Structure formats: C-alpha cells, structure tokens
Amino acid sequence: MPVDNNIAAPLYHSDWMTVVILLSGFFIWSVWRNAGGFLEQRSLEVMHGHNRKSLFASNTVSEFRMGLVLSIVHVLITGLFLHHLAVYFNVGGGLVFYLELCVLILTYHVLKIGIVRYWNYLLGSEDKTSEWLKSYQVFNMILGLLLLPVVVVITYTYRGMETGLNIGIFLLAIYLVVLLVRSVNIFFSNLSSFIYVILYFCVLEILPLMLAVKVALNSG
Is the pTM of this model over 0.85? Predict the structure, then answer.
C-alpha cells in the first residue's frame, strides 16, 4: 500500500474531526440509553427472517427514529474513514472534502434503495423489498459502529494509521461480501443461474455507485 509518510500529524487532530466523533458517540449513547436492545433485536430479526406483525406497533415510531440516528452515524463515520483513506493516498482532504464524501455516501444509499425498489417492482417481487431494506439498514448500522473505534485510532494515533486503515478496509470488504450474500439469498433463493447473480451485482451494486459519483462530480 503506497503511502506518503510526510502527512502532517496535526491534520488528524482537526477540530471538526473531533466534533464528528463526539457527535457520533453522543448519538450512539442516546440510542443505547433509550433502547439498548434495539440493534440486537433488529439483527435477530434479520438473521431469522422475522418480520413485525403489525406495522402500527406502539414502538414503530421510536424504532424508526433510533434506526435513523444509527444510520446517520453510519454516514458520518464511514465518511470520516474514507476521508482518512483519501488523505493516505493523497487524493484529497479537509472539511469540504469530508462533507462531499458524506453526500456521496448518502446519494449512493438513496440511489441503491431506489433501484432495488424499481428492480423488484419490475420483477413483481415487492414483498422481498422490505426484507432487504431491513437487512441493508442493519448491516449499515453495524458497519458504522465497528468503524468508530477504527476511526478514533486513525484520528488520534498517527502511528496506528496504517493498521487502522487495513482493519477498516477489511471491515468494508466483509460488509460488502455479507451484503452480497444476503441480497442473493433474498432475491435469488429460487434461481440456480449464476447469470442472475452477476446481473444483480452490476445493477444493484455498481450502477448506484457510478450514479452517485456522477451526481457528486456534477454538483462539484
């Protein structure tokens, strides 16, 4: 992995990075304080394929809010990790660049969810969309939580930057593999052709990323 060892250490002690980390920590604390078993319950539902019986259960609104908070943490922390990775490879850096990364991540997720919904509408399998959305949200939230300590190490421990980046890349790779396996299991459980898997990967993984990058470049 190429690296510029002359990266200025003070860059990793910028005030805005500390604000992002503290804000993310506060969000996580608020969720755990109000409902510590929320993510565990959602994870078990995803693993066992359970769905809530009533859409209008009393805790639906509160769970939606907690899921939204942890999703925001995912965007903030994943964006900060990608920022450190970009600085490591001398691609970019700074607060504006970080905000652009957050917008890119958010755009990617919005486009991907929209494409998945349209894809299943065309295939007549809208019932699988909710199951996929729940899995997708849970995996995103878990990724954000796992990357938080990694980002802290990279930000405040200059010598641990390469180790932190390697761990973060490994977590991202695991996230993508698990998400791909889960998605194939949901949408193509009754299909034996490998062509459908390749088609899924191209349409639902690569296309949203390309569109998000295009939107980001046009907005810049």
Answer: no
